[in-house]
Amino acid sequence: MLSEKMMAVYRQPLGKPHYTAGQLTKSLPMTDLTALTPHKPRRLAETLVERFAQRMRDGQLQRGEKLPTEASIMEAEGVSRAVVREALSRMQAAGLVETRHGVGTFVLDMPAPEGFNVGPATIVLLSDVLALLEFRLSLEVQAAGMAAERATPQALEELEQALEALMQGPEKSGSTTNADFQFHLKIAKASGNRYLIDIMKNLGTKMIPRTRMNSAYTGQSNRSTYLAGINVEHQQIFDAIASRQVDAARAAMFMHLNNSRMRLREAQKLQAFYSE
């Protein structure tokens, strides 16, 4: 049997009511789950897993802590033994818990935060932009290599058009931010990997360093020279992809992003100097 304290914790709703079917179930007390989905043990198991995961995120269940017995969970949740066992099996497969025979089930690791929490709202400070560039290095270097290997004629044509728009940006609109983003997005598309495309779209134009920190090029004595240098790097990336040189494409992308990181570090130093 659970203590009154633990029973109170497990019967707490997780948050304010929501209005989609899945989220509505999630916001109700545990004892209401079977009433909402009486003949769907898999759905009940999914909901039960998410509730345990949320309590781990909230700190109600700590790493190394022993979970209640199956009977206690059944009583607290108002579900069958089959649902409880299915939920425990899923949590074991996800690496969240481990079962020690004859001892019990224990919290093994914390679940990942819900959702992909990288995007425009999280890219605010110069340090955020630098961290993002390191993240991009791990993704876009490989993306460039895959693009060199997999790009279709149409993908190469779109990439070339994006490069031309990037080169003409200062003359046509005075800004190269969107054209820069489109160039990198077209590389992700040319790679043929939909997850890369989704990540790039999620980041949007905020992935381009100068959208947040103009000091990256206001510290340059000549903005045109600065942009010309960046465009040389973009041209080298395109040339390697277009000529199907996988290693060269990776190297060109690495050089470009690493140079961007170095430029931003210099901007960070200038910013710190002038703010003193």
From TrEMBL:
GO terms for molecular function: DNA binding; DNA-binding transcription factor activity. The keyword Signal does not apply. InterPro entries: GntR_C (IPR011711), TF_FadR/GntR_C (IPR008920), Tscrpt_reg_HTH_GntR (IPR000524), WH-like_DNA-bd_sf (IPR036388), WH_DNA-bd_sf (IPR036390). Residues 42-110 form the HTH gntR-type domain. Coiled coil: none annotated. Gene3D superfamilies: GntR ligand-binding domain-like, Winged helix-like DNA-binding domain superfamily/Winged helix DNA-binding domain. PROSITE patterns: HTH_GNTR. Keywords: DNA-binding, Transcription, Transcription regulation. This is HTH gntR-type domain-containing protein.
